[in-house]
Amino acid sequence: MISFKHVSKHYPNGTTAVDDLSLELPEGDITVLVGSSGCGKTTTLRMVNRMVEPSSGTVSVGGRDILEADAAELRRGIGYVIQQAGLFPHRTILDNIATVPLLLGWGRRKARARAAELLELVGLPAGSGKRYPHQLSGGQQQRVGVARALAADPPVLLMDEPFGAVDPVVRTQLQNELLRLQSELRKTVVFVTHDIDEAVRLGDRIAIFRTGGHLVQCAPPAELLASPADDFVAGFLGAERGLKLLSLSTLADVPQEPAPADDGTGSADGTGRWRLVTSGRGEPLGWRDTDGPDGDEAPLLPVRPLRDTDSLLSALDESLASPAGLVARVDADGVLTGVTGRDRIHEHAGRRHAEAGRTNAKATEATPDPDASVTA
Ligand SMILES: Nc1ncnc2c1ncn2[C@@H]1O[C@H](COP(=O)(O)OP(=O)(O)OP(=O)(O)O)[C@@H](O)[C@H]1O
């Protein structure tokens, strides 16, 4: 959908911001650009909507060379979200969101109706539409920034450190919201961040840049974590590369044992000690230690049931927290399907973690080919 072919950007002062970049960004994916400050991420992003023009090479969107498109028309098909939202301070929230539809000549009523729809889509109360940007929190303003970028339903969304200025809790909420929106909208998203954890959470692909505007590696997060191209990438991914890999691996492949009977005749751990108490619908409610002085009357200890889509990292955490040393597994409706023992979780997590560990040696041996072009 978006393609860079041998693209370079040199500024008049002699700075090379982007150096011979070849990269394909697939339609409907989130591609995250990461790297240290000044490595050319923003320049790369801005070349997509021609806010910066390439010195050489070709950038195309939807198969069309952007230099052949009318810049204003091109930008209307590309949503743009920046840090601190960049809202117009003297316009209401609804009018901010309606900016592009109004430019497109939709008419006031239709543009406002669309803005109201988007306000809801990004999780803001309808009443906030009449307010002004300074009357909203930083996180709410970012949501408005996303709504404004989506207003004309553009196929492409450029996001330049959109969540960089909000606190970690709000940031996580905004990341979750973006993933939820993306599962519905399937935009082609280019997302710039400094934060590798954000990149791993959000990216279908991560492109890592090095100072001087060189793209070093572009790959899906799990592949990047398991096989960094060189020491620079391994270093950028951080010492906890193995744990990050566990956060991306799911429980789906980890076998489970049949769920224990809840009627007092069976136990979950095979010793007869721990019983997993469920509701009438079969939802796990808590662990009961039948060996204690209270026996069958013992108070329930907390259980955090996990689905197949939950991560191995969550499973590891729950296996350590669970008093029974067992992870309760549930289906999409929250109904108990079985249990998995701590040992089995540890064995799977250990195997996955080792994949990241083993490739440390590989990364050290690897000699990156400076002439190689990287495709997503
Ligand atoms: N208009 C300009 N004129 C001259 N040099 C520029 C200009 N814009 C950017 N640069 C330089 O180009 C290089 C890449 O800048 P860019 O903003 O793309 O990096 P970045 O990776 O987005 O950095 P950051 O993470 O700090 O935002 C930097 O060295 C920057 O100083």
Keywords:
single chain, 376 residues, alpha/beta, CBS-domain, 2 domains, four-stranded antiparallel β-sheet, globular, binds adenosine-5'-triphosphate
How would you concisely characterize the structure shown here?
35% of the residues lie in helices and 22% in strands. The protein is of the alpha/beta class. The termini are close together.
Question: Which parts are unreliable, with pLDDT below 50 for 5 consecutive residues or more?
Answer: 360-376
Number of helical segments? Answer: 13
Strand content: 15-25%
The domain tally reads: 2
The CATH first-level class of the largest domain comes to Alpha Beta
Largest sheet: 6 strands, mixed
Reading the helices and strands in chain order gives EEEHEEHEHHHHEHEHEEHHHEEEHEEH
* Class based on secondary structure composition and strand pairing: alpha/beta
Q: Would you report the number of β strands?
A: 15
Query: What hetero molecules are in the model?
Result: adenosine-5'-triphosphate
Which superfamily, in CATH terms, is the homologous superfamily of the largest domain?
A: P-loop containing nucleotide triphosphate hydrolases
Bin the helical content.
25-40%
Biggest β-sheet: strands ordered side by side in the sheet:
6-7-8-3-9-10
On the 0 to 100 scale, the average pLDDT is 85
**CATH hierarchy: architecture of the largest domain:** 3-Layer(aba) Sandwich
- How far apart are the termini? 12 Å
Q: Mind telling me the C-alpha Rg?
A: 25 Å
Can you tell me the overall shape?
Answer: globular
- Fill in the CATH topology of the largest domain: Rossmann fold
Protein name: ABC-type quaternary amine transporter
EC number: 7.6.2.9
Region (Disordered): 256-303, 345-376
Biased composition (Basic and acidic residues): 345-356
